[in-house]
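Hi there,

I know you've been waiting on this one. I reran it after we fixed the sequence typo, so this is the corrected version. Both the input and the resulting structure follow.
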Amino acid sequence: MLLTMLRGKIHRATVRETNLNYVGSITIDEALLEAADILPGEKVQVVNINNGARLETYTIAGPRESGIVALNGAAARLGEPGDKIIIIAYALVPYQEARGFRPRIVVVDENNRAVEVKREEVWGPC
């Protein structure tokens, strides 16, 4: 059996731009993608803390150390510059490995710079 587990997360990133006329996706600073171990083109879930919107899209690497986080295409309707979002990547993990699986969590500051990168235990007391 495979379980869908949190694999990587960029926590409380700030949307810098929206571009409704772009073909789609979310553009993320290449350094943040690497810190969270999320690949360009990988499917992610984006959760908007400000308005509760959730969407799935794929990532595009933006310029390294630029702090760019941009909602593109239809996703641009689900957020505004200044909104705080969480970007989440998942993985299918065999059940036997799931309890010990530790995702990479990247906490960012208001300029979308990584201030903490950690492997976090997601299982609480059972």
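Quick highlight: The two ends are 20 Å apart (CA to CA).

Best,
R. S.
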